Amino acid sequence: MRTICFYFQVHQPLRIKPYRFFDIGDDHYYWDDYSNKSIIRKVAQKCYLPMNALLLDMIKQYNGKFKVSFSISGVCLDQFESYAPDVLESFQKLVATGHVELLSETDAHALSALASKTEFKRMVDAHKAKIKRLFNGYEPKVFRNTELIYSDKIGEMVADMGFEGMLTEGAKHILGWKSPNFVYENNINPKLKILLKNFQLSDDIAFRFSNKTWSDYPLTTEKFGKWLNAIPKEQETVNLFMDYETFGEHQWAETGIFEFMKALPNMVFNQTDFSFSTPSEVVKGGKPIAKINVPVPISWADEERDLTAWLGNDLQNEAFSKLYEMEEKIRKIDDPEIWKDWTYLQTSDHFYYMCTKFFSDGAVHSYFSHYETPYDAFINYMNVLSDFILRVENKVKELQAS
Amino acid sequence: MKVLMFGWEFPPHISGGLGTACYGLIKGLNVHNQEVIFVVPKLYGDEEPLADFVNASEVEVDYREKKFQETWENLTYLEINSYLVPYLGPEEFEKYTDYTLHHSSDIDETVFSNKFQFSGKYGKNLMEEVARYALVATQIAKSKDHDLIHAHDWLAYPAGIAAKEISGKPFIAHIHATQFDRAGQGGASGPVYEIEKAGLQAADHVLAVSHLTKKIVVEKYGIHPDKVSVLHNAVLDASIIKSDIQKHVPEKIVTFLGRITYQKGPEYFVEAAKKVIERDPNVRFVMAGNGDLLNKMVERVAELKMGTKFHFTGFLKGKDVDDMYAISDVYVMPSVSEPFGIAPLEAVRHNTPVIISKQSGVAEVLRNAIKIDFWDVDAMADAIFGLLHYPSIAKMFKELGSEELKNLKWEHVAAKLVTVYEKLHNQKP
């Protein structure tokens, strides 16, 4: 039996407020409450609430034969608790059906896997505890790292933490002639099963759905069914991984994206030999076909599928290294405010805003950034980080004095 | 003596140092009982009544007169549809440009209308405004009695030339900045240079704000040195500015405050900062301002891995500027070419010791400051380190600097100017 595995990423960063040089040493509150709240509310209305309601209906309608999985970042869950309890409740209802799987990730949607094993594990544990608290004792079995960032070494760390499977990108330069539609194994620890995103079919929905210049526009479920049927019979799993905001936010309701999803299961059941599974079902059911060799980290971003969207220029490298230089000192400090800011400052989006790759082209990047330029993003972040460093150093001095 | 003076801006509506200098000069001339007719492209009505102000936007030009038509024809070379921003980098240009005001005004159709609404800014239609300003100048020269014509910077030179053609009175070209300062060696081409050159050559006398500028006027524009007098700028108020701002960081602060453009030498400040931080990590550097080199400076700071010690504030105004000076322990002006440079004097008023480049006019009048070559980042780093670590030298510069400031008065400058006026007036009976 062949199967489709849906995974939706739910994440909103805690955005930093405009923070001036004059604020350093004086103002220790960094977060832009107003815009964070209004963005959560906006996306809740356009995407989270309507799409959750639709998925709940579909799960009920097909008696659990239609199923999906989510990875919800800890920083996003925190904001749901503060600004959108209705959204949190609708996710809780979905999980309570038993046909929705939650994945594990880092609490802050961070790049910590690239910086520190200790911090990476702490963040995964923190996220685990949050999921357990909010979703009635739920325990995730499968891991997905920030932006699907994966390498052999990261996989090994994830296996050490006891996970059975991990999701990543079916990057062309990794796969070569191989297909993403199989279960693979981590190169170092084969106990960890690797699911690869079918970026062709995923991006048909996530990116191309409403693109009128696309030769296959408009995308109908029939067309999608044909493409599924065209996949060679021995290829068993089609992993459709995408941002949850695809539904209603990146692709507006007017594009027909909700209707497409509503009609999809019926088409799949009637016109193809595919079913729907969650990642842990795929990990259990599928036979691993081979080890996958990923010496250099990959991600799901951009054409390059590498790390350059977050760590590709001097600005990003400077911010990233200055942040993680603090880790040792922070470990000695027992202060919830410091730890909260330390966590939120690690969110990958802060580094994404500093990306200059698209600066010349503009559009793609600016959609996801509230800064006018990557330079503004860097200046603002470094001002905040400078204040944070002062606070940490003062705490360390206090400790040494006592 | 009655002076017909052409400026481009006047406080409080200014975007550069030109307006402030004109203000100081007129205040000084008032002390010496000189009558000044001061023309600006646009008056806002809240200017201090120090002169007989003429708002060029309100002047009716009688288009039937042949003389005006001739003037206009002579000026048509200015109407190059150039995307020309002499004073500002691209970013600031965006901010200062007033697109809506006369975005689509067509010169040929509206040229002989009675009045022309000037923006008085440095926007897209700058060349057109400069040309029209000259046209208005002919009308003013005709209707307002005067003994001398005095025009500030290239923007007003065509007006000065046109006025002289009408009244035949001596014309003084006052130069506050040259295109060589703004654009480096690339300054020797383009319309701004051409206008500057025409103005300086047509002038009966030239006033330069420093010996440095006089040297450029003589060497680059071919003006005879006898025709050029140096008239340094001064300060309006030499009193020490007390501030109650609290510094919130424990480190000492070293500041660059100005436009982040080639002329101001920001890259030398960044390189010197690196050298200082290597020796003393307890220092923060601040680059305050905006300009076309800002992003490049941000990148360089990241590359040098001093992002948590080197900060950018963006464009500052009003109280923020005072606060910035007040919390600074050292102020650095590493200008590559600065005709005068008033900012270090402001720093002195805040009791902040200053380091200035030898390539600045202000270095000629401020003796109690450390002077370095803009390119000598080692010397700059040494000077910063010294002022931060040896309190006695910092204290000495603070005290002597503020004493020195008291002698830099506009009325002294104006006295010198009056002698120039008189000499010129007597030459031409």
TrEMBL record, chain A:
GO terms for molecular function: catalytic activity. Pfam families: Glyco_hydro_57. PANTHER family: ALPHA-AMYLASE-RELATED, ALPHA-AMYLASE-RELATED-RELATED. Keywords: Carbohydrate metabolism. It comes from the Bacteria. One of its GO terms (biological process) is carbohydrate metabolic process. The keyword Lyase does not apply. InterPro entries: GH57_Enzymes, Glyco_hydro_57_N. Residues 6-287 form the Glycoside hydrolase family 57 N-terminal domain. This is Alpha-amylase. Coiled coil: none annotated. CDD domains: GH57N_MJA1_like (cd10795).
TrEMBL record, chain B:
GO terms for molecular function: glycosyltransferase activity. This is Glycosyltransferase. It comes from Arthrospiribacter ruber. InterPro entries: Glyco_trans_1, Glyco_trans_4-like_N, Glycosyltransferase_grp1. Coiled coil: none annotated. Residues 243-399 form the Glycosyl transferase family domain. It comes from the Bacteria. It holds the Pfam family Glycos_transf_1. Residues 132-235 form the Glycosyltransferase subfamily 4-like N-terminal domain.
